[in-house]
Amino acid sequence: MDKGKQITGAAREELAREMKEQYENGLSIRAIAEAHGRSYGFVHRVLTETDVPLRSRGGDRPRRRLEKAGRPQR
Known about the structure:
The protein is an all-alpha fold. 53% of the residues lie in helices and 0% in strands. Helix 2 (29-36) crosses helix 3. The longest helix has 16 residues, at 9-24. The relative contact order is 0.13. The model has no long low-confidence stretch (mean pLDDT 85). This is Transposase. Residues 53-74 are annotated as: Disordered.
């Protein structure tokens, strides 16, 4: 797909399905954007349009580190 080209209809639905699967398998929005030659904003918009629950910023951080540092868990 050409960078910046508008994607509509069945092509957009297929791309959304693919991006959703990649995101649910652990890829970041930035990684998906780079793989498809699209912007972060485009991928974010496509994921929110398909009702994908977005992860919080910072990735998966184990809480055990906080316990070891003597800090209470939230």
